[in-house]
Specification:
The complex is a heterodimer. Chain A has five helices and ten strands; from the N terminus they run E-H-E-E-H-E-E-H-E-H-E-H-E-E-E. By secondary structure, chain A is an alpha/beta fold. Chain A has two domains: 85 residues, GMP Synthetase, Chain A, domain 3 (2-Layer Sandwich), CATH 3.30.300.130; 59 residues, N-terminal domain of TfIIb, CATH 2.20.25. In chain A, the strands form three sheets. A four-stranded mixed beta sheet of chain A has the order 1-4-5-6. Chain A is elongated, with a radius of gyration of 17 Å. By secondary structure, chain B is mainly alpha-helical. At the A-B interface, loops of A face helix 2 and helix 6 of B. Bound molecules: zinc ion. Zinc ion binds next to loops of chain A.
Protein backbone atom coordinates (compact mmCIF):
# COMPACT_ATOMS: atom_id res chain seq x y z
CA UNK A 1 0.00 0.00 0.00
CA UNK A 2 2.82 2.39 0.67
CA UNK A 3 4.85 1.48 -2.39
CA UNK A 4 5.49 4.20 -4.94
CA UNK A 5 6.02 1.61 -7.67
CA UNK A 6 3.44 1.47 -10.39
CA UNK A 7 1.85 -1.87 -11.15
CA UNK A 8 0.69 -1.60 -14.73
CA UNK A 9 -0.02 -4.44 -17.13
CA UNK A 10 2.10 -3.84 -20.25
CA UNK A 11 -0.77 -4.67 -22.56
CA UNK A 12 -2.65 -1.64 -21.22
CA UNK A 13 0.12 0.90 -21.64
CA UNK A 14 -0.59 1.75 -25.31
CA UNK A 15 -4.25 2.34 -24.45
CA UNK A 16 -3.50 4.49 -21.42
CA UNK A 17 -0.91 6.51 -23.31
CA UNK A 18 -3.66 7.69 -25.66
CA UNK A 19 -5.53 9.40 -22.82
CA UNK A 20 -4.46 12.96 -22.17
CA UNK A 21 -4.82 15.30 -19.24
CA UNK A 22 -7.84 17.43 -20.21
CA UNK A 23 -6.18 20.59 -18.90
CA UNK A 24 -2.79 19.94 -20.49
CA UNK A 25 -3.67 18.00 -23.65
CA UNK A 26 -0.04 17.40 -24.68
CA UNK A 27 0.50 15.31 -21.59
CA UNK A 28 -0.75 11.73 -21.39
CA UNK A 29 -1.98 10.45 -18.06
CA UNK A 30 0.96 8.03 -18.14
CA UNK A 31 3.46 10.88 -18.53
CA UNK A 32 1.66 12.66 -15.73
CA UNK A 33 2.20 9.68 -13.42
CA UNK A 34 -1.38 9.63 -12.16
CA UNK A 35 -2.00 5.98 -13.07
CA UNK A 36 -0.75 3.94 -10.14
CA UNK A 37 -1.95 0.50 -11.09
CA UNK A 38 -3.77 -1.21 -13.93
CA UNK A 39 -4.41 -4.93 -13.79
CA UNK A 40 -6.52 -7.23 -15.92
CA UNK A 41 -8.87 -9.61 -14.17
CA UNK A 42 -10.89 -11.60 -16.70
CA UNK A 43 -12.59 -9.05 -18.91
CA UNK A 44 -12.27 -6.30 -16.34
CA UNK A 45 -9.46 -3.81 -15.90
CA UNK A 46 -8.96 -2.46 -12.41
CA UNK A 47 -7.28 0.90 -12.40
CA UNK A 48 -6.12 3.13 -9.60
CA UNK A 49 -5.49 6.79 -10.29
CA UNK A 50 -4.31 9.47 -7.91
CA UNK A 51 -5.18 13.17 -8.12
CA UNK A 52 -2.51 15.78 -8.76
CA UNK A 53 -4.31 18.27 -6.49
CA UNK A 54 -7.29 17.34 -4.27
CA UNK A 55 -9.74 19.58 -6.06
CA UNK A 56 -8.44 18.87 -9.56
CA UNK A 57 -11.61 18.82 -11.70
CA UNK A 58 -9.70 16.89 -14.37
CA UNK A 59 -9.85 13.69 -12.32
CA UNK A 60 -13.52 13.02 -13.02
CA UNK A 61 -12.90 13.53 -16.74
CA UNK A 62 -9.83 11.30 -16.66
CA UNK A 63 -11.85 8.55 -14.98
CA UNK A 64 -14.52 8.76 -17.69
CA UNK A 65 -11.92 8.86 -20.47
CA UNK A 66 -10.23 5.74 -19.10
CA UNK A 67 -13.54 3.89 -19.01
CA UNK A 68 -14.44 4.78 -22.58
CA UNK A 69 -10.94 3.99 -23.94
CA UNK A 70 -10.97 0.58 -22.30
CA UNK A 71 -14.48 -0.09 -23.46
CA UNK A 72 -13.31 0.47 -27.04
CA UNK A 73 -10.54 -2.02 -26.40
CA UNK A 74 -13.09 -4.57 -25.20
CA UNK A 75 -12.65 -4.28 -21.44
CA UNK A 76 -14.89 -3.30 -18.62
CA UNK A 77 -13.18 -0.84 -16.30
CA UNK A 78 -13.28 -0.12 -12.60
CA UNK A 79 -11.57 3.14 -11.73
CA UNK A 80 -10.62 3.90 -8.14
CA UNK A 81 -9.29 7.19 -6.85
CA UNK A 82 -6.55 6.67 -4.28
CA UNK A 83 -4.89 9.35 -2.14
CA UNK A 84 -1.97 7.48 -0.76
CA UNK A 85 0.87 7.65 -1.63
CA UNK A 86 0.20 11.25 -2.59
CA UNK A 87 1.15 12.34 -6.07
CA UNK A 88 4.38 14.24 -6.53
CA UNK A 89 5.72 16.17 -9.52
CA UNK A 90 8.65 13.71 -9.47
CA UNK A 91 6.29 11.23 -11.09
CA UNK A 92 6.06 13.27 -14.28
CA UNK A 93 8.22 11.36 -16.76
CA UNK A 94 11.18 12.95 -18.64
CA UNK A 95 9.05 12.72 -21.80
CA UNK A 96 6.26 14.49 -19.95
CA UNK A 97 8.58 17.27 -18.78
CA UNK A 98 9.74 17.81 -22.36
CA UNK A 99 6.13 17.89 -23.56
CA UNK A 100 5.33 20.55 -20.95
CA UNK A 101 8.24 22.74 -22.06
CA UNK A 102 7.31 22.35 -25.74
CA UNK A 103 3.76 23.34 -24.87
CA UNK A 104 4.98 26.53 -23.18
CA UNK A 105 4.77 25.48 -19.53
CA UNK A 106 7.97 25.53 -17.49
CA UNK A 107 8.52 22.12 -15.87
CA UNK A 108 8.77 21.88 -12.06
CA UNK A 109 12.13 22.47 -10.38
CA UNK A 110 13.22 20.41 -7.39
CA UNK A 111 11.68 21.28 -4.02
CA UNK A 112 14.56 23.44 -2.81
CA UNK A 113 14.80 25.52 -5.98
CA UNK A 114 11.00 25.79 -6.15
CA UNK A 115 10.93 27.34 -2.71
CA UNK A 116 13.59 29.93 -3.46
CA UNK A 117 11.81 30.83 -6.70
CA UNK A 118 8.35 31.24 -5.18
CA UNK A 119 9.41 32.75 -1.88
CA UNK A 120 12.63 34.64 -2.43
CA UNK A 121 12.12 35.61 -6.06
CA UNK A 122 15.31 33.85 -7.22
CA UNK A 123 15.59 33.59 -10.99
CA UNK A 124 15.82 29.87 -11.68
CA UNK A 125 12.77 29.21 -13.83
CA UNK A 126 13.63 29.08 -17.52
CA UNK A 127 11.33 30.81 -20.00
CA UNK A 128 9.89 28.06 -22.21
CA UNK A 129 9.81 30.48 -25.16
CA UNK A 130 13.36 31.85 -25.30
CA UNK A 131 15.24 29.91 -22.63
CA UNK A 132 16.19 32.96 -20.57
CA UNK A 133 16.30 32.65 -16.79
CA UNK A 134 15.65 36.37 -16.44
CA UNK A 135 12.10 35.68 -15.28
CA UNK A 136 9.80 37.09 -12.60
CA UNK A 137 6.99 35.46 -10.69
CA UNK A 138 3.69 37.29 -11.13
CA UNK A 139 1.59 35.09 -8.88
CA UNK A 140 2.09 31.90 -6.88
CA UNK A 141 -1.22 30.69 -8.30
CA UNK A 142 -2.01 30.28 -11.97
CA UNK A 143 -4.57 29.12 -14.48
CA UNK A 144 -5.01 25.76 -12.73
CA UNK A 145 -4.29 24.56 -9.20
CA UNK A 146 -0.93 23.10 -10.25
CA UNK A 147 0.62 26.20 -11.81
CA UNK A 148 2.10 29.60 -10.94
CA UNK A 149 2.26 32.62 -13.26
CA UNK A 150 5.56 33.96 -14.53
CA UNK A 151 6.78 36.45 -17.08
CA UNK A 152 9.99 36.57 -19.04
CA UNK A 153 11.89 39.85 -18.76
CA UNK A 154 13.75 39.22 -22.02
CA UNK A 155 11.17 38.10 -24.55
CA UNK A 156 8.36 39.66 -22.45
CA UNK A 157 6.14 36.60 -22.76
CA UNK A 158 3.98 35.54 -19.81
CA UNK A 159 4.02 31.81 -19.10
CA UNK A 160 2.91 29.14 -16.62
CA UNK A 161 5.27 27.34 -14.28
CA UNK A 162 4.27 23.89 -13.07
CA UNK A 163 4.79 24.09 -9.31
CA UNK A 164 6.80 21.46 -7.50
CA UNK A 165 4.63 19.25 -5.32
CA UNK A 166 6.50 16.95 -3.00
CA UNK B 1 -21.89 3.86 13.23
CA UNK B 2 -18.93 5.36 15.00
CA UNK B 3 -20.54 8.67 16.00
CA UNK B 4 -17.36 10.13 17.46
CA UNK B 5 -15.35 9.45 14.32
CA UNK B 6 -18.15 10.87 12.17
CA UNK B 7 -18.34 14.04 14.26
CA UNK B 8 -14.59 14.31 14.33
CA UNK B 9 -14.37 14.22 10.54
CA UNK B 10 -17.07 16.88 10.21
CA UNK B 11 -15.14 19.04 12.66
CA UNK B 12 -12.22 19.09 10.25
CA UNK B 13 -14.15 19.11 6.99
CA UNK B 14 -16.63 21.86 7.86
CA UNK B 15 -13.79 24.34 8.41
CA UNK B 16 -12.51 23.72 4.92
CA UNK B 17 -15.96 23.73 3.32
CA UNK B 18 -16.96 27.05 4.82
CA UNK B 19 -13.62 28.72 4.18
CA UNK B 20 -13.71 27.34 0.63
CA UNK B 21 -17.14 28.88 0.16
CA UNK B 22 -15.92 32.26 1.42
CA UNK B 23 -12.94 32.19 -0.94
CA UNK B 24 -15.16 31.09 -3.79
CA UNK B 25 -17.25 34.24 -3.32
CA UNK B 26 -14.25 36.17 -4.62
CA UNK B 27 -14.34 34.42 -7.99
CA UNK B 28 -14.44 37.30 -10.45
CA UNK B 29 -14.39 39.83 -7.59
CA UNK B 30 -10.81 39.62 -6.30
CA UNK B 31 -8.89 42.90 -6.04
CA UNK B 32 -6.60 41.89 -8.90
CA UNK B 33 -6.52 39.06 -11.40
CA UNK B 34 -3.68 37.29 -9.60
CA UNK B 35 -5.22 37.43 -6.13
CA UNK B 36 -8.60 36.47 -7.55
CA UNK B 37 -7.07 33.35 -9.11
CA UNK B 38 -5.14 32.59 -5.94
CA UNK B 39 -8.25 32.76 -3.75
CA UNK B 40 -10.27 30.56 -6.08
CA UNK B 41 -7.39 28.10 -6.39
CA UNK B 42 -7.23 27.80 -2.62
CA UNK B 43 -10.99 27.39 -2.57
CA UNK B 44 -10.67 24.55 -5.06
CA UNK B 45 -7.99 22.83 -2.99
CA UNK B 46 -10.12 23.09 0.14
CA UNK B 47 -13.25 21.78 -1.58
CA UNK B 48 -11.25 18.90 -3.03
CA UNK B 49 -10.02 17.99 0.44
CA UNK B 50 -13.55 18.32 1.77
CA UNK B 51 -14.83 15.79 -0.76
CA UNK B 52 -12.41 13.17 0.58
CA UNK B 53 -13.51 13.84 4.16
CA UNK B 54 -17.25 13.81 3.43
CA UNK B 55 -16.97 10.67 1.27
CA UNK B 56 -15.36 8.98 4.23
CA UNK B 57 -17.98 10.39 6.62
CA UNK B 58 -20.76 9.17 4.33
CA UNK B 59 -19.25 5.70 4.38
CA UNK B 60 -19.19 5.73 8.18
CA UNK B 61 -22.74 7.04 8.42
CA UNK B 62 -23.84 4.23 6.10
CA UNK B 63 -27.41 5.51 5.94
CA UNK B 64 -27.51 6.27 2.23
CA UNK B 65 -26.47 9.89 2.55
CA UNK B 66 -23.84 11.00 0.06
CA UNK B 67 -20.98 13.48 0.36
CA UNK B 68 -23.26 16.08 -1.25
CA UNK B 69 -26.05 15.53 1.28
CA UNK B 70 -23.63 16.03 4.11
CA UNK B 71 -22.13 19.14 2.55
CA UNK B 72 -25.32 20.76 1.32
CA UNK B 73 -28.29 19.66 3.35
CA UNK B 74 -27.53 20.18 6.99
CA UNK B 75 -29.08 22.94 9.07
CA UNK B 76 -27.00 25.78 10.45
CA UNK B 77 -26.81 24.27 13.93
CA UNK B 78 -25.41 21.05 12.47
CA UNK B 79 -22.31 22.70 11.00
CA UNK B 80 -19.41 22.56 13.41
CA UNK B 81 -16.85 24.83 11.76
CA UNK B 82 -15.00 27.40 13.84
CA UNK B 83 -16.35 30.95 13.78
CA UNK B 84 -13.17 32.27 12.17
CA UNK B 85 -13.76 30.69 8.77
CA UNK B 86 -17.31 32.00 8.36
CA UNK B 87 -16.31 35.65 8.81
CA UNK B 88 -17.03 37.71 5.68
CA UNK B 89 -14.68 39.10 3.02
CA UNK B 90 -15.04 42.62 4.42
CA UNK B 91 -12.03 43.76 2.41
CA UNK B 92 -8.88 42.11 1.09
CA UNK B 93 -7.26 42.67 4.49
CA UNK B 94 -9.93 40.57 6.19
CA UNK B 95 -9.69 37.89 3.54
CA UNK B 96 -5.94 37.61 4.02
CA UNK B 97 -6.04 37.87 7.83
CA UNK B 98 -8.69 35.13 8.04
CA UNK B 99 -6.71 32.95 5.65
CA UNK B 100 -3.45 33.44 7.50
CA UNK B 101 -4.94 32.83 10.96
CA UNK B 102 -6.49 29.63 9.65
CA UNK B 103 -3.58 28.41 7.47
CA UNK B 104 -1.08 28.41 10.33
CA UNK B 105 -3.49 26.28 12.36
CA UNK B 106 -4.43 24.08 9.41
CA UNK B 107 -0.81 23.28 8.62
CA UNK B 108 0.01 22.36 12.24
CA UNK B 109 -3.14 20.23 12.53
CA UNK B 110 -2.47 18.32 9.31
CA UNK B 111 1.14 17.69 10.33
CA UNK B 112 -0.24 15.80 13.34
CA UNK B 113 -3.13 14.19 11.46
CA UNK B 114 -0.59 12.59 9.12
CA UNK B 115 0.34 10.39 12.08
CA UNK B 116 -3.25 9.26 12.70
CA UNK B 117 -3.82 5.55 13.17
CA UNK B 118 -6.79 5.96 10.86
CA UNK B 119 -5.27 5.31 7.43
CA UNK B 120 -7.95 7.24 5.55
CA UNK B 121 -7.42 10.37 7.61
CA UNK B 122 -3.68 10.02 7.43
CA UNK B 123 -3.81 9.71 3.61
CA UNK B 124 -6.06 12.78 3.27
CA UNK B 125 -3.72 14.72 5.57
CA UNK B 126 -0.63 13.73 3.60
CA UNK B 127 -2.29 14.87 0.39
CA UNK B 128 -3.72 18.09 1.82
CA UNK B 129 -0.64 19.32 3.60
CA UNK B 130 1.22 19.81 0.35
CA UNK B 131 -1.52 22.13 -0.84
CA UNK B 132 -1.93 23.90 2.48
CA UNK B 133 1.78 24.71 2.60
CA UNK B 134 1.21 26.79 -0.55
CA UNK B 135 -1.79 28.50 1.08
CA UNK B 136 0.26 29.38 4.13
CA UNK B 137 3.05 30.79 2.00
CA UNK B 138 0.56 32.91 0.10
CA UNK B 139 -1.23 34.32 3.12
CA UNK B 140 1.94 34.89 5.18
CA UNK B 141 3.48 36.66 2.25
CA UNK B 142 0.50 38.99 1.91
CA UNK B 143 0.43 39.71 5.64
CA UNK B 144 3.98 40.99 5.26
CA UNK B 145 3.29 42.92 2.08
CA UNK B 146 0.23 44.65 3.49
CA UNK B 147 1.67 45.20 6.97
CA UNK B 148 4.97 46.53 5.68
CA UNK B 149 3.34 48.31 2.74
CA UNK B 150 1.63 51.71 2.70
CA UNK B 151 0.05 53.37 5.72
CA UNK B 152 -3.36 52.51 4.31
CA UNK B 153 -2.56 48.81 3.79
CA UNK B 154 -0.85 48.63 7.19
CA UNK B 155 -3.86 50.11 8.99
CA UNK B 156 -6.35 47.92 7.21
CA UNK B 157 -4.55 44.63 7.78
CA UNK B 158 -4.00 45.63 11.42
CA UNK B 159 -7.73 46.31 11.80
CA UNK B 160 -8.56 42.93 10.29
CA UNK B 161 -6.09 41.10 12.52
CA UNK B 162 -7.44 42.91 15.59
CA UNK B 163 -11.03 42.04 14.67
CA UNK B 164 -10.42 38.38 13.85
CA UNK B 165 -8.08 37.73 16.75
CA UNK B 166 -11.06 37.03 19.00
CA UNK B 167 -11.84 33.90 16.95
CA UNK B 168 -8.40 32.29 17.21
CA UNK B 169 -8.69 30.69 20.63
CA UNK B 170 -11.59 28.49 19.53
CA UNK B 171 -9.26 26.63 17.18
CA UNK B 172 -7.76 24.97 20.25
CA UNK B 173 -10.96 23.95 22.03
CA UNK B 174 -11.61 20.23 22.23
CA UNK B 175 -15.01 18.74 21.51
CA UNK B 176 -16.25 15.45 22.95
CA UNK B 177 -15.48 13.79 19.62
CA UNK B 178 -11.97 15.28 19.69
CA UNK B 179 -11.29 13.85 23.12
CA UNK B 180 -12.54 10.41 22.17
CA UNK B 181 -10.52 10.36 18.96
CA UNK B 182 -7.33 11.58 20.62
CA UNK B 183 -7.77 8.74 23.08
CA UNK B 184 -7.87 6.25 20.20
CA UNK B 185 -4.84 7.71 18.43
CA UNK B 186 -7.05 8.80 15.55
CA UNK B 187 -7.48 12.48 16.31
CA UNK B 188 -5.17 15.42 16.87
CA UNK B 189 -4.92 16.97 20.32
CA UNK B 190 -5.48 20.58 19.26
CA UNK B 191 -4.68 21.93 22.71
CA UNK B 192 -1.07 20.98 22.07
CA UNK B 193 -0.87 23.08 18.91
CA UNK B 194 -1.65 26.36 20.64
CA UNK B 195 1.84 27.37 21.67
CA UNK B 196 3.41 26.69 18.27
CA UNK B 197 0.51 28.47 16.61
CA UNK B 198 0.81 31.75 18.45
CA UNK B 199 4.57 31.66 18.16
CA UNK B 200 4.44 31.36 14.39
CA UNK B 201 1.62 33.88 13.99
CA UNK B 202 3.38 36.43 16.17
CA UNK B 203 6.64 35.97 14.25
CA UNK B 204 4.98 36.79 10.97
CA UNK B 205 3.09 39.74 12.47
CA UNK B 206 6.34 41.15 13.82
CA UNK B 207 8.06 40.81 10.46
CA UNK B 208 5.06 42.58 8.97
CA UNK B 209 5.54 45.46 11.45
CA UNK B 210 2.10 44.71 12.90
CA UNK B 211 1.06 44.80 16.53
CA UNK B 212 0.04 41.61 18.25
CA UNK B 213 -3.48 42.14 19.62
CA UNK B 214 -3.60 42.20 23.39
CA UNK B 215 -7.26 41.35 23.90
CA UNK B 216 -7.81 38.22 25.90
CA UNK B 217 -11.52 38.08 25.18
CA UNK B 218 -12.28 35.21 22.83
CA UNK B 219 -15.43 34.09 21.02
CA UNK B 220 -16.48 30.48 20.80
CA UNK B 221 -19.45 28.37 19.80
CA UNK B 222 -18.88 27.28 16.23
CA UNK B 223 -17.74 23.81 17.23
CA UNK B 224 -21.07 23.40 19.05
CA UNK B 225 -23.06 24.69 16.08
CA UNK B 226 -23.67 28.15 17.54
CA UNK B 227 -22.61 30.48 14.76
CA UNK B 228 -22.24 34.20 14.12
CA UNK B 229 -24.94 36.05 12.19
CA UNK B 230 -22.94 35.64 8.97
CA UNK B 231 -23.38 31.89 8.79
CA UNK B 232 -27.03 31.84 7.77
CA UNK B 233 -26.38 34.06 4.77
CA UNK B 234 -23.41 31.96 3.75
CA UNK B 235 -25.46 28.77 3.91
CA UNK B 236 -28.31 30.33 1.98
CA UNK B 237 -25.84 30.89 -0.84
CA UNK B 238 -24.14 27.51 -0.47
CA UNK B 239 -27.35 25.49 -0.31
CA UNK B 240 -29.51 27.42 -2.73
CA UNK B 241 -29.24 25.00 -5.66
CA UNK B 242 -29.90 21.85 -3.65
CA UNK B 243 -32.82 23.45 -1.84
CA UNK B 244 -34.37 24.91 -4.98
CA UNK B 245 -33.76 21.86 -7.17
CA UNK B 246 -33.48 18.87 -4.83
CA UNK B 247 -31.14 16.08 -5.97
CA UNK B 248 -29.78 18.03 -8.90
CA UNK B 249 -26.39 16.87 -10.12
CA UNK B 250 -23.67 18.17 -12.40
ZN1 LIG C 1 11.51 34.49 -22.76
Amino acid sequence: MTTTQQNINEKLIPILEQISDPEIPVLSIMDMGVVRSAVIEGDTVKIEITPTYSGCPAMDVIGDDIKSALKKAGYKAEVDLILHPAWTTDWITPKGRQALEDYGIAAPLDAEADKSVLLEGKQLVKCPQCGSKNTTMISQFGSTACKAQFKCNDCQEPFDYFKCLK
Amino acid sequence: MNQNLYNYILGIADNSLILGQRLGELCGHGPSLETDIACTNMSLDLLGQVRSYYQYAAKIAGDGRTEDDIAMLRKEREYVNVLLVEQPNTDFGYTIARQFLFDVYHFLMLTELEKSTDLNLSAIAKKSIKEVSYHKRFSSDWIKRLGDGTKESHDRIQTAINDLWTYTDELFHQTEADKAMVEEGVGVDVTKLKEAYYKEVENVLETATLDIPESKYFQKGGKQGIHTEHMGYLLADLQYMQRAYPNMEW
